[in-house]
Amino acid sequence: MKKLLIPLLLALPAALVANELVDPPAPDGLRRGGTILQDNPAPPLAGERAGIHRATRNYPEQPPMIPHPIREYQVDKNFNQCLVCHSRSQSVQTGAPMVSITHYWNREGQALGAVSPRRYFCTQCHVPQHDTRAASDNRFKGIDAVFRESQDN
Amino acid sequence: MLKFLKTYWQVFNRPASYISMGVLSMGGFIMGIMFWGGFNTALEVTNTQEFCISCHEMQSKPYQELISTIHYTNRSGVRAECADCHVPHDWTFKIARKMEASKEVWGWIFGTINTHEKYEAKRRELAEREWRRLKANDSLECRNCHEFESMDFTLQAPRARAMHSTYLASGEKTCIDCHKGIAHHLPDMSGVPMGLHEVDTPHLDRYMQQRFATE
What we know:
The complex is a heterodimer of chains A (about 150) and B (about 220).
Chain A: H1 2-22, H2 83-86, H3 91-94, H4 143-152
Chain B: H1 2-13, H2 21-45, H3 49-52, H4 56-60, H5 62-67, H6 82-86, H7 91-100, H8 102-110, H9 116-136, H10 140-143, H11 158-168, H12 175-178, E1 193-194, E2 197-198, H13 202-214
Antiparallel strand pairs in B: 1-2
């Protein structure tokens, strides 16, 4: 019994150190260390923001963000709910911005009669906004801020 | 056989000689209540969601699609179940719909839509039947809860207000003309107008290419 106990006692600090090694904090600081083995409650789901205004794009190529809830919008090969308002034929009537002409181009730059399949799935680039705090610090600056700073210097 | 029936008809046709008028009328009254109550109870049972999704076909496809929609999962806890949208509330129309539904029993027996593939192949046909029904009755099942007279346009989004105060108000369009696929996934919508126009689908371009290629 004693023979067994001594190596066990020796192994204990080693196991604690190993625990630190296998369970470090996340490199981006989003998760504290020593939490992998714990069961923590999930943060509450953030609700979609309703009635928000269209946001200025931070740089010219930014896909515009969606300023309205898109809960249960069907976008699949059968149907695209977004195009009910945003398609070329509907946008004037509905007052929604028309999907840009680039969405009608195929890879060769030829304009098609309908939205090109490679640009068809809206939420690949366009995302709605949620009521939530940023998970980590974000030091991103919009193109205007960068311009202003470069002019000041 | 005919003689046997004839004997019974004679008994049936003859005035009662042993049973009193009171027993007959009261008995008829009580039996009437039991029959009518039983009939209506059975009818109501077939109107419950539990009854609908007791079939694999309804449980695995339409019900699963309904669960995540606003009509089933929402903050205020008001829930529209199968019969609220698919069965008229008024008695005459309800009975008519129930008689139509006997075809669904046929479909269930012969497994018309009992696999994913079969269901997807029939989705357009099934959807079209419901669109046609709602178009014909001016979206009655929508209006059982969403009354046009009770809508406050000032609380609607500008786009919704613009549509409801014109097309819906004039009766030119009805709910289902724009609000298709609110509780279940839509089938291939090529050729089906959604609101005022048909919506582009990725197939459209393929159709056009095929057409021009054959011409």
